Amino acid sequence: MTRRLRLPLVVVAAVALLGSAGAAPAVADRSDQASSPTTIALPDGFQPEGIAIGPGPVAYFGSLANGSIYRASLRTGEGSVISPSPGAGNPSVGLKSDDRGRLFVSGGAAGNARVVDTRTGKVLASYQFATGDTFVNDVVLAHGAAWFTDSRQPVLYKLPLGRHGALPTQAQVVRVPYTGELVYAAGFNVNGISASPDGRGLIVVQSNTASLFRVDQSGATRKVNLGAESVPAGDGLLLLGCTLYVVQNRLNMVAKVALNRAGTAGTVVTRVTDPGFDVPTTVAAFGNRLYLPNARFGTTPTPTTPYTAVAIPRP
Question: Which pLDDT score is estimated for 88?
Answer without folding.
Answer: 85
